[in-house]
Design brief:
The chain is built from 15 helices and 7 strands. The strands form 2 sheets. Strands 5-4-3-6-7 form a 5-stranded mixed β-sheet, with helices on one face. The chain starts with a strand and ends in a 13-residue tail after the last helix.
């Protein structure tokens, strides 16, 4: 069965609207079972000539199946393994029964109820084919309800057993372990808030490294490290990129991006040269330059540039669009209130300018001082604060602005 870890539902059975079974679904199931069984009974008794017996049997069986399809909340023990009961409750549980409103449960109470119902289901139907998914659902709902951070010792024990169970798919254990580490990170941040973004990144890196160490073959752990490396242009970003390159399990595409991370960090403190028509950085010497890259898929960058340009008239803005579809980009840029140099590169992260800038993400800001020295390759992080810090120091700001309070 195809299990969706985001919605926590079995996509192979979730075909009804609003991710729930219609109110009359149990009756329809019972009626269909009765019809099929009655047909088979009719064929048998017609063959031996007992039509009256068939009629009585069909009527009785139809009534009993329709009634049985209305599954009670606590079925008697002798019915605990009946296929009709388990199938109906399985569907209801995986659908979440929309505890409050249609869609994904939204409150801690809803998730706590789902966790409790999952545990009850496993107690009554320990051999159900979907028991692994129900075990995962119980723990995920427990995390969402906040029970894992409370005094639910029983749930903590079940968590430890789940993570140590090799019969559980590694991808499922990864999901649960990630939720556990995220909960620990949130608790640590709440008790001792990080002083700045750099300190916060160090904490996140510790938990991501734990995931990679415990699940080295799961690409998602390496992806978390890579994403963090892309957003940190200081020592941590360099260390994480080096770790990805040294890993025997990191996907090749992640290693290529890690090399770009190192190349982009290495641009800081050096003169920037771009070989492309339309951009002559030498002619801009004497003025601070803010180079921005953008795509129509993330229009927020143009909105950010409008604000920055309005508040910083002394800075020269150079825009680079990376979309392959130029016409759509032209329309979007024309609608924005932005002046300065602007060119179209195309090719996403593989365009000629993108390659020269060692881009690791489509939307980014790069700050260059009046002498043509790259000051910050991640100026999109806290852009307003970094630019204020830059202008306050005039034309002689040292490179490597990595974090501004």
């Amino acid at each position: 069965m195809a299990y969706d870890p985001v919605t926590m539902r079995d996509s192979s059975i979730m075909k009804t609207s609003n991710h729930s079974l219609p109110a009359d679904r149990p009756l329809q199931v019972g009626a269909q079972l009765a019809s099929d069984t009655a047909f088979q009974t009719q064929r048998r008794y017609e063959t031996i000539g007992f039509k009256k017996v068939w009629l009585t049997t069909a009527i009785s069986l139809s009534a009993s199946l329709c009634a049985f399809a209305q599954v009670p909340e606590s079925p008697s023990p002798n019915l605990s393994n009946h296929a009709s009961v388990t199938d109906t409750e399985w569907r209801a549980l995986m659908a979440g029964e929309n505890p409050s409103t249609p869609g994904v449960p939204s409150s801690a109470t809803d998730w706590a109820a789902i966790s409790a119902r999952s545990r009850n289901f496993l107690t009554r139907f320990p051999d159900h084919p979907g028991r692994l998914q129900i075990r995962k659902l119980e723990l995920e709902a427990g995390f969402r309800a906040g029970a894992m951070m409370a005094a639910d010792q029983e749930l903590h024990k079940r968590l430890a057993v789940y993570l140590a169970d090799d019969s559980v798919p590694a991808s499922h254990r990864f999901d649960i372990r990630r939720m556990q580490l995220q909960a620990e990170l949130q608790a640590e941040s709440a008790s001792a808030p990080a002083q700045n973004k750099a300190a916060s990144n160090v904490r996140r890196a510790k938990f991501y490294r734990t995931l990679v160490a415990e699940f080295p073959e799961d690409r998602r752990g390496h992806g978390l490290l890579l994403a963090l490396a892309k957003g940190d242009a200081a020592r941590l970003g360099h260390e994480l990129a080096e770790e990805i390159l040294a890993s025997a399990h990191a996907p090749d595409e992640f290693r290529i991006e890690a090399m770009r991370v190192l190349g982009r960090i290495g641009m800081q403190g050096r003169s920037l040269y771009l070989s492309t028509p339309g951009i002559d950085l030498a002619a801009l010497r004497g003025r601070a330059v803010l180079i921005y890259t953008w795509s129509v898929k993330w229009p927020f960058m143009l909105q950010t540039i409008e604000r920055l340009q309005k508040n910083n008239p002394d800075i020269q803005f150079v825009g680079i669009n990376v979309d392959e579809e130029r016409e759509a980009a032209k329309t979007a840029f024309a609608a924005a209130n932005i002046t300065g140099i602007h060119v179209y590169d195309g090719g996403g992260l593989h365009g000629p300018i993108a390659e020269q800038l060692q881009l690791t993400m489509v939307s980014s800001l790069l700050l260059v001082d009046p002498n043509g020295i790259v000051i910050d390759v991640n100026a999109h992080e806290q852009a307003d604060a970094k630019i204020r810090h830059f202008t306050a120091f005039g034309k002689s700001l040292s490179p490597r602005i990595t974090d501004v309070d």
